[in-house]
Amino acid sequence: MSALTAQLDQVAKAGAVAGTDPELSVGRLAGGAQTAGWGSNWAEGTESALGADDVWMYDDGYGSANFDCRSAHAQGCWGHRDNILRPWQRDLAGCPPAATRLVMGTGYARSSHYGPSFAEILVAACGPKPAGEVFTWAQAEVAIGVSHP
């Protein structure tokens, strides 16, 4: 992951407000990178973003609240987890390593149904550094004490 961007945060926020997985409707990111693949997740009713991530990762199969998993063999079972763990490098085959980008956006809204609504969108892109970075991987490493500024 290289960064969270303002552009993708807006896309994720729209998904959180609408109560649905965010949809990417552009082929290029702000800054010019060409999108090569993307995935998105939405959850409602958890009390935190960490709770939403836990649901996407560990409670996404048959018998869960995943609307796309209504039978044991439904194609949507574990789809949220697959988005998070997706081998994004396959989408970027042919892109020079220095130009590969994995960026994301996150969004939150209050829902009238079950309380908090959380959404994320993950995008593999090839090209220049995205415009509007709001939090980079390097900043995250410093924040959790993995590296120093």
Q: How would you describe the overall organization of this protein?
A:
- This protein is α+β, with helices and mostly antiparallel strands and 149 residues long.
- Helices cover 25% and strands 28% of the residues.
- The protein has 4 helices and 5 strands; from the N terminus they run E-H-E-H-H-E-E-E-H.
- It has helices spanning 6-18, 49-58, 79-85, 137-143, and strands spanning 3-5, 34-44, 100-111, 115-126, 133-136.
- Strands 2-4-3-1-5 form a 5-stranded mixed sheet.
- What value does the average pLDDT take? 93
- The quaternary state of the protein chains shown equals single chain
Distance between the termini: 18 Å
The Rg value, from CA coordinates, equals: 16 Å
Structural class: alpha+beta
Helix percentage range: 10-25%
Give the strand order, joined by hyphens, for the main sheet: 2-4-3-1-5
Number of helices: 4
Which overall shape is indicated by the principal axes computed on the Cα atoms? Answer: globular
Q: Which spans of ≥5 residues are poorly predicted at pLDDT below 50?
A: none
Largest sheet: 5 strands, mixed
Sheet-strand content, in percent, reads 25-35%
Helix/strand order? EHEHHEEEH
Number of strand segments: 5
